[in-house]
Design brief:
Chain A: Its main location: membrane. The complex is a heterotrimer of chains A (about 475), B (about 300) and C (about 325). Chain A has about 475 residues and is an all-alpha fold. Chain A folds into two domains: about 80 residues, no CATH class; about 325 residues. Chain B is globular and about 65 Å long. The mean pLDDT of chain B is about 85. Classes of the chains: A mainly alpha (about 475), B mainly alpha (about 300), C alpha/beta (about 325). Chains in contact: A-B, A-C, B-C. At the A-B interface, helix 1, strand 1, strand 2, helix 8 and helix 15 of A face helix 2, helix 3, helix 4, strand 1 and helix 9 of B.
Chain lengths: ~475, ~300, ~325
């Protein structure tokens, strides 16, 4: 962590000659280095190791020296170049690179991305030379699309209505457990077995539970939302966080109902609208004259989540152009003005909360059917934070930004897993996936400091008379409170 | 009756620790109106700094007096934790001061995740136990089957909390730093116009908050004898609950809230169910924020139209 | 007082759209509004004036539901002025309102803010303009028609699935917005963000937005503040035309006496939360108490007024 003191650099140095400039830069870098020793010294310089059950200390002076050295050198370099007082600061106003990019290629981007998403399994099939070889890529695609959908769902709450929800994972969990519990429930299975045949529930559970999961999560959104929606922005955030944690803790501790920390396993798989993906003669492959391949199910799941995500996007676009969507955005802009125009802010907030929760529930149901297993482990606060980071990085309220952010973040995190070659560099103890959350946390801070309005900061108006002009992000507010 | 007294003692001990952390939340919220989400993790970092310092002193340097070691650990942990929190404010919060309101909060969430994982990466994910220290107890009551004991470390925790609180209370109420701080709470722009160095004052607030969190970290380490990278989040949320319950922005409120939360948690664990003790804490947080957001000792807010 | 003698002739007594009765508002120990009663005539432009801190905005916040009055009754009549019996009936049964075919009685002190604007049809503007700055001018006017459009969109269901009826309603709403854009001469800025407009245009837009919610009573909090003389004149014209063409009654807080005296039919003067004068602009202008409250406005006026007060006190003591 470098500590920024450049902005306090005395203006006197501006006129100074190169020598004093360097001296100043050097002194500043030295101070930074000293601070870095103070910050990193205890935790990097020493390591607590458990030897034979007792705690001992390890020493890492080399690592500490390298880190501090990097910070010192980096700071010195920055002081002499970017932060140099002689440099005329480039004042950039108006739309950012991404905004301009969005404006110029904007019309083409959405269809192109959509076409790519639709063709992705086949592209990876040809690129990798077979279904089994492309499994990793398609799984990654499913993961990214799940987070795209979650991001779009949360975007309704945070981006449009301006309500900071830190407990979004709760609705994801409600959706997942709704499916997991219903699909594995013996009474339900027996009920349908008597009514519609032995295999009915196993084959149709997902398609029946999917809408129920969304509905159920939406209802939970209303139940949790009702008491908290009159709270101010940051209090709202904390209470939603508390609710998310309460739901997770209940899932862990209510063992009789939820299976506790062990979770629920062997949840029925998704079917092709009632036709199971198996090698039997009633299976998908046999009916369509294909050679059986377990990848059929994975590819199908990919398209299911793609369609679910597109429904989310479509609904959001539609809702934005309806009075309710405009009221959400108006609420984000000025709640008091909304009330002076006869808008019932409680029901408006509640509708945003419930709509967002509903899409979270759909995504949760999908998660359960894809994994075939749910446990409270999957619904920690980190997931909420990750979805929030995607929305924030994408630019609150921007659909395309959120999609790109989800791809970048989830893709980036996955890539960390593949950096195995780094073990040769840092030794065998080095596990790059450990650094996922570390980098993620750092990225969240960095986004806020560097680009608090996200990649796409402009707002697209919902209606226009003569021409559609996007609204600069500087005018758009980010929620009350 | 004996169990009740014992739980009362345990609850007050735990509450003292929460109270110390809660002060950090309350002071930061008071001065810049932000929920410093990373504060719980700063507390956790302080426990690790204390742990490392303690190991250095006892195993490497070979100090035998546990009290001397603890005193040194306390000072060292306070110093380094303050430095950490100072740097966090500098890097993650100060550039966002003019930004939209939720930006610092999101940045703080990122910082919280960063700190927890930084410690995990550098110190490993396992629990780090320290050998039990100061194991002496005073037996207060003895009914034959059940002994009510007051451990010396509990006495140390409560006394240290009380003394440090008194000290910081004096600092905030009676000195010019405290006056500057309260002025910044009221109106930052006006305070700046009157020649108060606002940046400086805010930095100092973070430093004080971290120092108190470090005290809590040392006490926690001494009391429970274990440190873990994940131990920042839940105590942090509980301490925030304490700050809210006491009335956010109010120093005595934070302590009162801390003691209450500590008592509620221990009694809940003793009489109801230990599994749901965190649920109880989170529920109190939600209920307080919903029904009495001004807390016990806070001032109510009037909406400006 | 001079005005009370000829009370029967005034519209605000004969046909009040709003009666404020014994309104009290306390904040802790502070009494911001103290036993205030006045009436707003149907179709009148009524001005609420008074020195800074007199409690004018507090009265507005009570009328529009943002504050719950500590005590008092705020009776709004749709269609015609309610009879005392009707008012007593609503008050007794504890309802918020009683709406018949031709007339309705609303007790504003019992209604939350969004109902005051949505059901009782009292719209307002704010002293420190509150536009949706990140939305376009047209969007601002569309949000103002929320309740009507919400019903037309079948509470989003019709609109979501593109069922008929919604598109037509939306078109009608755009037409209405265009009408008001034309009225406040912002037609060519319709697609610009509201936050980009100059100050005077923002004030006008806020009035247009309030009018888009079809109010019967329009409450304007210092509409002329920050306007230049030309804009002030335009405002006068706009307010007159709103009254003339839409029959909307207007209640306004204003410091600019040229606006107040020029356009209002009825002036109520507040000082320290109590009413010190009430009547036609001419009557109020010559009321010595008003002038006393405004001491310091004009050097010449001060002496003049002081002399007047002395003579008033002399005659007042004898009566």
């Amino acid at each position: 962590m470098a500590v920024q003191t450049a902005e306090t650099a005395p203006a006197a140095a501006k006129a100074g000659d190169a020598g004093s400039l360097f001296a100043h830069a050097f002194k500043d870098a030295l101070i930074t280095g000293l601070i870095a020793i103070g910050l990193l010294g205890p935790l990097i310089g020493f390591q607590t190791i458990i030897i034979d059950g007792a705690l001992g200390l390890g020493y890492r002076p080399g690592l500490l020296a390298v880190m501090v050295g990097i910070i010192f050198a980096g700071r010195l370099l920055l002081n002499l170049t970017v932060w140099s007082p002689n440099r005329v600061p480039k004042t950039r106003s108006g739309p950012s690179v991404f905004d301009r990019l969005g404006a110029t290629v904007g019309p083409g981007v959405k269809p192109a991305l959509l076409a790519f998403a639709a063709a992705f399994p086949f592209i990876s099939f040809y690129a990798m030379g077979g279904w089994n070889e492309s499994r990793y890529l398609i799984d990654l695609g499913i993961l990214i699309l799940t987070y795209v959908m979650l991001g779009w769902g949360l975007n309704i709450v945070v981006g449009l209505a301006g309500l900071l929800d830190l407990g979004y994972v709760a609705f994801y969990a409600v959706g997942a457990y709704t499916y997991a519990l219903l699909a594995t429930s013996t009474p339900v299975n027996e009920f349908f077995a008597g009514l519609l045949g032995e295999t009915f529930w196993a084959n149709w559970a997902f398609w029946i539970c999917l809408p129920m999961a969304g509905l159920f999560a939406g209802v939970w959104g209303m139940i949790l939302g009702f008491p908290v929606l009159r709270l101010r922005g940051d209090y709202l955030a904390i209470v939603t966080l508390a609710f998310g944690e309460i739901i997770r803790l209940v899932l862990i501790n209510w063992v009789d109902f939820t299976g506790g920390g062990a979770g629920i396993a062997s949840i029925p798989r998704a079917t092709f609208f009632g036709i199971p993906f198996n090698a039997s003669e009633n299976g998908f492959a046999a009916l369509f004259g294909l050679e059986f391949n377990p990848m059929h199910r994975i590819v199908f799941l990919y398209f299911v989540i793609l369609v679910l995500a597109l429904i989310t996007a479509f609904a959001t676009v539609r809702l934005r152009r309806l009075p309710v969507g405009r009221a959400w955005e108006a609420l984000r802009e000025d709640e008091i003005a909304c009330r002076s125009l006869g808008i019932n802010t409680t029901t408006t907030k509640l509708s945003a909360f419930a709509t967002g929760a509903m899409f979270g529930g759909f995504a949760g149901c999908f998660f359960a059917v894809r994994a075939g297993f749910v446990s409270p482990e999957s619904f920690t606060f980190d997931v909420s934070a990750m979805i929030l980071a995607i929305v924030v990085l994408g630019g609150m309220g921007s659909q395309i930004g959120v999609a790109v952010a989800a791809a970048v973040m989830m893709g980036g995190m996955e890539m960390l897993r593949n950096l195995g070659f780094l073990t040769q560099l840092f030794g065998n103890d080095f596990d790059p996936s450990l650094y996922r959350m570390l980098i993620f946390g750092f990225a969240m801070v960095a986004i806020m400091v560097w680009k608090p309005r996200g990649l796409v900061s402009t707002r697209d108006p919902t209606i226009f008379l003569k021409e559609r002009k996007s609204v600069s992000g500087d005018l758009v507010k980010e929620g009350h409170g | 009756m004996e169990i009740f007294v014992q739980q009362l003692i345990n609850g007050l001990t735990l509450g003292s620790i929460y109270g110390l952390i809660a002060i950090g939340y309350t002071m930061v919220f008071g001065i810049i109106g932000m929920v410093n989400f990373a504060h719980g993790d700063v507390f956790m970092v302080s426990a690790f700094i204390a742990l490392i310092c303690f190991l250095l002193l006892t195993t490497v340097i070979g100090i035998t007096s546990i009290f001397l070691a603890l005193a040194i650990v306390l000072v060292v942990a306070m110093f380094f934790t303050s430095l950490v929190n100072w740097a966090i404010e500098r890097v993650a919060y100060r550039p966002l001061r003019g930004s939209f309101r939720l930006a610092p909060m999101i940045s703080a969430i990122g910082m919280s995740i960063f700190l927890a994982n930084f410690v995990q990466v550098t110190q490993g994910p396992r629990n780090k136990p320290v050998p039990p220290m100061i194991t002496d107890v005073i037996v207060l009551m003895d009914s034959g089957s059940y002994q009510v004991t007051l451990a010396w470390k509990q006495v140390i925790i409560m006394v240290a909390t009380a003394v440090l609180l008194a000290g910081f209370w004096y600092l905030v109420q009676k000195t010019s730093l405290g006056r500057a701080q309260r002025a910044c709470e009221q109106d930052r722009k006006m305070a700046a116009l009157l020649g108060i160095n606002v940046d400086h004052t805010i930095s100092l607030t973070f430093v004080i908050g971290a120092a108190l969190a470090a005290v809590a970290g040392v006490m926690y380490l001494m009391y429970y004898g274990v440190a873990n990278f994940a131990d920042g989040f839940v105590p942090g949320v509980k301490a925030f609950t304490a700050a809210v319950l006491g009335g956010i922005g109010s120093l005595p409120g934070a302590v009162l809230g801390g003691l209450l939360i500590g008592l509620i948690e221990t009694f809940w664990s003793a009489y109801f169910s230990i599994e749901y003790k965190d649920v109880a804490a989170f529920s109190i947080l939600a209920i307080t924020l919903i029904f009495m957001p001004q807390g016990l000792l806070g001032r109510p807010e009037v909406e400006k139209v | 007082m001079a005005t009370s003698s000829a009370s029967g002739a005034h519209r605000w007594d004969a046909d009040p759209i709003l009666s404020v009765e014994h309104l009290f508002m306390r904040f802790g120990g502070l009494i911001a509004v103290n036993d205030l009663s006045f009436k707003v005539g149907r179709g009148d432009i009524t001005a609420l004036i008074g020195p800074n801190g007199a409690g004018k905005t507090t009265v507005f916040n009570c009328i529009t539901g943002f504050y719950k009055p500590s005590e008092g009754r705020l009776v709004l009549g749709h269609g015609r002025a309610p009879t005392p019996d009707e008012v007593a009936e609503v008050t007794r049964i504890g309802e918020r309102s009683l709406v018949g075919r031709e007339a309705g009685v609303f007790l504003l002190e019992r209604m939350p803010d969004h109902r005051v604007s949505g059901e009782a049809k009292v719209a307002r503007t704010f002293q420190n303009i509150r536009l949706f700055t990140g939305m376009t001018v047209l969007e601002n006017l569309m949000v103002a028609q929320h309740n009507a459009l919400m019903a037309a969109s079948g509470y989003s269901l019709k609109g979501l699935f593109g069922l008929p009826g919604w598109a037509g309603a939306q078109r009608a709403a755009v037409e209405k917005a265009k009408y008001w854009l034309d009225k406040v001469s912002l037609m060519d800025r319709a697609d610009d963000p509201a936050g980009d407009l100059p100050y005077g245009a923002q004030r006008r837009l806020e009035i247009a937005r309030a009018m888009c919610s079809d109010p019967i009573l329009l409450c304007l909090d210092e509409p002329a503040a920050g306007l230049n003389p030309r804009e002030s004149l335009e405002l006068n014209t706009l307010l007159r035309s709103i009254r003339a063409e839409h029959g909307t009654s207007i209640l306004l807080i204003e410091h600019d006496m040229s606006v107040v005296m020029e356009i209002s039919d009825h002036v109520v003067v507040l000082d320290y939360g109590t009413k010190i004068s009430d009547g036609t602009p001419e009557a109020v202008k010559s009321d010595p108490r008003v002038i006393a409250a405004y001491l310091g406005v004009d050097e010449d006026a001060v002496e003049e007024v002081e002399a007047e007060i002395h003579s008033e006190e002399a005659t007042g003591a004898s009566s």
